[in-house]
Amino acid sequence: MANEYISSMSNRIYIKSETDFPELNNMAAAEVAPITSFALSSNRKQLYRRDKTGFRSESPVMGPQRELIEFNLESYGTGWSGGNTKPGIAPILESGMCASAQLGAAYLVQANSGSSVTLQADAPLTIGMGLSFGSEIRFVESISGPRDFTLNTPFSIQLSSGAQLDGCANLSTGDSVNAMSVLDTWAPSQAIQRFLTGAVADQMKITVNNDFLEIGAKGFARNLFDNVSGVGGVGFQFPEAPANASPLANSPIAGHLGQAFIGVPASRLCTLTQAEIRIDNNIEPRTDEFGCFDTKAFVLGRRKVSLDLTVFERNDALSQALYTKAVNNEPVPVMLQMGTQSGSMFAVYLPSVLFPVPAFNDDQPRLLWQFRNAVAMGLQNDEIFIAMR
Question: Which domains are delineated in the chain?
């Protein structure tokens, strides 16, 4: 029926990696992303005449103007069920981490003693690789041989000979712009459909202990098309939405389920009330070159990975050790795992974090420590690792 309002619930958003699928106007390989909000702005540098005309009227210049496209999205975090297909939210994470996700394989254990593991066969191990067993994810902390490695903390169940470690979808930071395409579709078909290409996440955040695990990304895009204005030109064909993509295939992870480890040696932390991990890529869009009306490329700046934590203080050794490390400005490792079932687990590992001296918050019956802008250190793209299973 004509003359109807457009419902904000009549919306599906499809995303795909332009590194894995570089054909821009073909979204057949896209997945429905569990995005909860998507804001898009096209900031045009409008020019006005300032010559003396004898009148007070504004006279904007017609025709093409320089334009910067910005987006801001919020998404649920999901796990990975295995196989050769990346998780549905992988393009968002790949864009924020500036690296492609690597899909791991399963390995059989020969021997295990605490954090030390020996496999039955040689494996392509890497520092920061995630491995899962049952309802837990752990990360490779160090490698001593093609079969021997150390985990960041032991699994809660001792691994017996012949136990299978399942591979994860692994992400580490990189040095390449990893763009994605975003197709914003609405019903009915007469509504304006939007298509974003060359979208890169300048900032990404992971929020823990909300109702659901939440991932936010904001950044820039090279091009914005729609299905009515003909912006793409005569040869451009607006892409069709994938016919077989299901929005229910990506089950969000409950934000309050999981486990946290912190300290040296890594100890289970059971008093975490809030955490937020942020990645700032300091991307500079190239929009000021002579003869350019849109963004031609993006330049990666110095990356910053930071962490906020709020915990209840306890009269135990872990609280004392954490406070001492913060006062002495000494790094400690941090690992957060969200979810407790295979296929719905998401873990973050920061091997070396410098915590500030915590702020004491006594507004509640129990004393809270608030750590703000703790800095994750790294040397060669090793500040943060993400694993999904």
Answer: 11-44+65-100+173-388 (no CATH), 105-167 (2.40.30)
CA 40 to chain CA centroid, Å, is 18
Tokens of 232: 């793409």
The kind and range of the H/E element at 194 are strand 194-208
Residue 349: CB atoms within 10 A of its CB come to 26
- Kindly state the tokens that stand for 211: 């109702």
Contact status, residue 6 vs residue 191, Cβ threshold 8 Å: yes
pLDDT mean values, one per 10 residues, the chain (389 residues): 77 94 90 93 82 82 82 96 92 97 96 96 96 96 96 94 96 96 91 94 95 96 90 82 78 91 86 95 87 82 96 91 94 95 95 96 92 94 97
**Which amino acid, 57?**
S
What does pTM read for this prediction? Answer: 0.93
Q: What is the DSSP string of 320-342?
A: HHHHHHHHHT--EEEEEEEEEET
The distance between the two most distant Cα atoms of the chain, rounded to a whole number of Å, is 89
